């Protein structure tokens, strides 16, 4: 039978874990996570092309990177803690609506960076973040994509359909009729999908001035009215 002395009774497992805990490594990982989060913050601000810029969302990317690194550091040396953390995090639900699909890319980037920083893969996260940032800046700010528009015209007389078709064809690179309907009261409404020339939308004023045209609306696919 083994004897139990006084020191064994008051032995603390907390102190044992503290001795195996490297404060310097943890500080380095958190500082790198903070630096990478700042880089993600800068890239997001540089590449944002929406209407309303969310400063709080951008700051949350920095905190997300650091918090993820902190979690990985905590569970990396304890299998029981890691299982408990997975169970605790499984009840968390992210219910904030994501309006721009690119926001998901930045969230995933921040989480992956935090994981790598917490696991100690510092060179990998630095090289990967630089490459990802360069790709995002190049493709979003340098490559121009011409998005199609929807032209919705409401008119009262069907006789203007041919002149309207010619005018749309003359001022667009490509167009097609998406829908055509008869409104209550005898009015007609037609919707074109068009790609305009050199972002010139002045021809919509000519359409509005046509006889029997009651309204002409240009609508982009992101939901912003441009006329």
TrEMBL record:
InterPro entries: DUF4956 (IPR032531). Keywords: Membrane, Transmembrane, Transmembrane helix. The chain crosses the membrane at residues 20-44, 56-86, 106-139. This is Membrane protein YhiD involved in acid resistance.
């Amino acid at each position: 039978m083994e004897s139990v002395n006084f020191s064994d009774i008051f032995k603390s497992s907390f102190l044992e874990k503290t001795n195996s805990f490297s404060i310097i490594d943890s500080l380095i990982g958190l500082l790198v996570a903070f630096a990478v989060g700042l880089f993600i913050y800068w890239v997001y601000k540089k590449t944002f092309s929406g209407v309303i810029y969310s400063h709080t969302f951008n700051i949350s990317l920095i905190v997300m990177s650091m918090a993820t690194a902190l979690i990985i550091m905590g569970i990396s040396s304890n299998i029981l803690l890691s299982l408990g953390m997975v169970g605790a995090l499984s009840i968390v639900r992210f219910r904030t609506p994501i309006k721009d699909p690119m926001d998901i890319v930045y969230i995933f980037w921040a989480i992956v960076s935090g994981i790598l920083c917490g696991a100690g893969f510092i060179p990998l996260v630095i090289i990967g973040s630089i490459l990802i940032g360069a790709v995002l800046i190049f493709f979003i700010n340098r490559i121009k994509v011409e998005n199609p528009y929807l032209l919705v015209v409401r008119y009262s007389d069907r006789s203007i359909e041919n002149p309207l078709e010619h005018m749309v064809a003359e001022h667009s690179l490509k167009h097609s009729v998406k829908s055509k309907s008869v409104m209550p009261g005898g009015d007609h409404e037609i919707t074109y999908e068009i790609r305009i020339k050199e972002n010139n939308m002045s021809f919509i004023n000519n359409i509005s001035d046509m006889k029997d045209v009651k309204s002409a609306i240009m609508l982009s696919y992101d939901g912003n009215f441009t006329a």
